[in-house]
Design goal:
LECT2; 157 residues; 3-stranded antiparallel β-sheet; Glucose Permease (Domain IIA); alpha+beta; zinc
């Protein structure tokens, strides 16, 4: 069992360890109803830009506006790696997925994927935006996009 876990972590490190500049990657349409991938601005729950204050911590992703129930699309050709959740508690929006593509490894949160494994071409449906208003009333509903970088030394700790 330990060998399987170690192999899985090693595979994840290989998939997510590239040095691609995410700013140079062209994301296709992520969410129906938002063809320009508009970023979430500030609302009563905070701001959606990378590094925004979250109390004693910093926001580790970028929020892309997406209406509850909207279709979420693959922004480019992607490989679906596994399920990934944003919270330790269970609520109506605690779902998401880890993906790779264009030399990037990233997570999408607040999305109910149609599946957690496989491949998708740019523009194909990943899943559905979850009901964010149920958990955070009056927030700008959004998909949270979080880039990952897994370094070999992190696997040893």
């Amino acid at each position: 069992m330990r060998l399987y876990i170690l192999f899985s972590l090693l595979l994840l490190a290989v998939l997510c360890s590239s040095r691609v500049d995410a700013r140079k990657v062209k994301f296709g349409n992520l969410c129906s109803g938002n063809p320009s991938n508009s970023k979430r601005k500030c609302d009563k729950h905070g701001c959606g830009h990378y590094g925004a204050s979250r109390g004693g911590r910093k926001h580790q992703g970028l929020d892309i506006v997406c209406a509850d129930g909207a279709t979420v699309y693959a922004p480019f050709d992607v490989k679906l790696i596994r399920r990934s959740v944003p919270y330790t508690n269970n609520n109506a929006i605690n779902d998401g997925i880890m993906l790779t593509g264009e030399g990037l490894c990233f997570k999408l949160f607040y999305v109910k994927p149609d599946r957690y494994y496989g491949t998708l071409r740019k523009g194909q449906r990943i899943g559905t935006m979850l009901p964010m208003q149920r958990v955070y009333p009056h927030i700008t509903s959004h998909v949270h996009v979080q880039m990952l970088e897994v370094l070999p030394q992190k696997l040893e700790t």
